[in-house]
Structure formats: C-alpha cells, structure tokens
Design brief:
This protein is mainly α. About 35% of the residues lie in helices and about 5% in strands. It contains 7 helices and 3 strands, in the order H-H-E-E-H-E-H-H-H-H. Strand 2, helix 3 and strand 3 form a beta-alpha-beta unit. The two termini are about 20 Å apart. One of its GO terms (molecular function) is protein tyrosine phosphatase activity. InterPro entries: Oocyte-zygote_transition_reg (IPR052782), Prot-tyrosine_phosphatase-like (IPR029021), PTP_cat (IPR000242), Tyr_Pase_AS (IPR016130), Tyr_Pase_cat (IPR003595), Tyr_Pase_dom (IPR000387). Pfam families: Y_phosphatase.
C-alpha cells in the first residue's frame, strides 16, 4: 500500500471513536480549566482517576493505554506548552513540591525525556529517534506517561509504535493498521491526529525492519519490493517535507 492509499485509509477513520463513548468527567471539569481544548474530549472509559489525598478533584485529561505487557502500560495526557513555536527567549517557572511520608526512607527516580524537534500536528525526520527513546523506557514496570499539547497526536503516534512492537514481541498477531488505530482510540480518543502521523508510524516501522535490521529481513526485499519501498520513501519525504 502506497503513501496516498494510506492517507485515504486514515481519512476513513479520522473521526472514529469508541462506540458508545462517554465524556462526562471532561464536560464537568471543562469550565474549571482542566482541559486544554474543548474539541479534544477525554473519554470516561480508561480514564486516569487521581486518588491523591487532598486533591481538589479526581480528574485529569488522561487515559490508560494497554499493551500485552500491561493493561496500564501508558498514561496519555496533555501538557502545557514548554517552549515557544518561534525562536525567542522563554522563561518557564515550575513549582515542584516533594512530600516525604514520615517513617520511610523511600526514594523515587523520575526520568523525563523531551523531544524538541517534533512539530505539533507534524512529524519529525525519520532517524529512528522514536526507537531509541522507547528503548530507554521499555524496561519499566510502572505506567509510562507520554504527553504533548493535546495528548493525542504526537503522544498517540509514539504509543502506537511501541504498541506494535510489544504485540510482535509477545507473539500477538498484528492486525492491519486500521484495526490497531481503532484499538488505540478505544483507550484514548482521537489518538494519531492526522494522516501525516499515520504515515510516520508506517515509515518508522519500515525503517526499523528494512534498514536497521536489513540483513535479517533481506528476503523480503526482492527487486520488485525494493522498487516499491524506494517509491514509498520518496513519496513520504515529499508529502511530509522530511528526509
């Protein structure tokens, strides 16, 4: 399937949501400013419920997304913009409070990775950065928090890549991408925000298997398939404006 066919395929699913999806908590908390966008609902199904003592609400715009590793493998959520769209000087002030329970010596380590050159609603250059990033967090047994501005575009794209990999590693059949997108959106509404991000998932997977592990999958690349793959890459670069 070529680039244009994949774009058409995505457009047919662009508005897909979980059948009978509800978003009551989203509506209740919108006036309080707990959502970044009115048109990006947080579905009640698989919603992350805050249980921190003394919290003013149990709501956050976040959903769990499961993989064969765990039913709560990822937490997909929103985050305010941390850097400007245009070159400038920006000052961000964060107030962080650490509360240590009495009578315990427990310590926790927090690792935060920020991807700086992935544009909103766009895609980054295909250099397997996503694979490198995912390899650094894959070993954790706790839910992995992934966030971007709306919590569905870049977030949904990176989660989709790991979702595919973990299915393959677990020996679970990988359905076609249409079904995988539906499964992802059944947990986090409107994940993968546009056709370019849909293409990016395919491009990364092709790059990973047919370029990084070329020797292992050499049998796939017949002369005919090499020609098709070269055309796919050229068309992808043209459409996305990347290399």
């Amino acid at each position: 399937m070529g680039v244009e066919a994949l774009r058409i395929e995505y457009r047919g699913l662009a508005k897909y949501t979980l059948p009978d999806m509800t978003w009551e908590a989203f509506k209740t908390n919108h006036e309080a400013g707990r959502n970044r966008y009115q048109d990006v609902p947080c579905q009640d199904q698989h919603r992350v419920v805050i249980k921190w003592p003394g919290a003013p609400t149990d709501y956050i715009h976040a959903n769990y997304v499961g993989t064969p590793v765990s039913e709560k493998r990822f937490i997909c959520t929103q985050m305010r913009q941390m850097s400007p769209d245009e070159p400038s000087i920006a000052l961000s002030v964060l107030n962080i409070k650490f509360t240590k329970p009495d009578g315990t010596n427990e310590t926790r380590e927090l690792r935060h990775y920020q991807w700086l050159d992935w544009p909103d609603r766009g895609v980054p250059p295909c250099r397997l950065t996503s694979m490198e990033l995912l390899s650094r967090i894959r070993g954790t047994k706790k839910p992995i928090i992934v966030h971007c501005s709306a919590g569905i575009g870049r977030t949904g794209t990176i989660v989709a890549i790991e979702y595919i990999l973990e299915r393959m590693q677990a020996g679970v059949e990988c359905a076609n991408m249409c079904d995988l997108l539906k499964e992802l959106r059944n947990h986090r509404a409107f994940s993968i925000q546009n056709d370019l991000q849909y293409l990016y998932v395919h491009r990364v997977m092709f790059c990973y298997f047919l370029e990084k592990h070329k020797a292992r999958y050499e049998y796939i690349l017949t002369e005919e398939n090499k020609t098709k793959y070269a055309k796919f890459v050229a068309d992808y670069n043209l459409v996305t404006g990347t290399q």
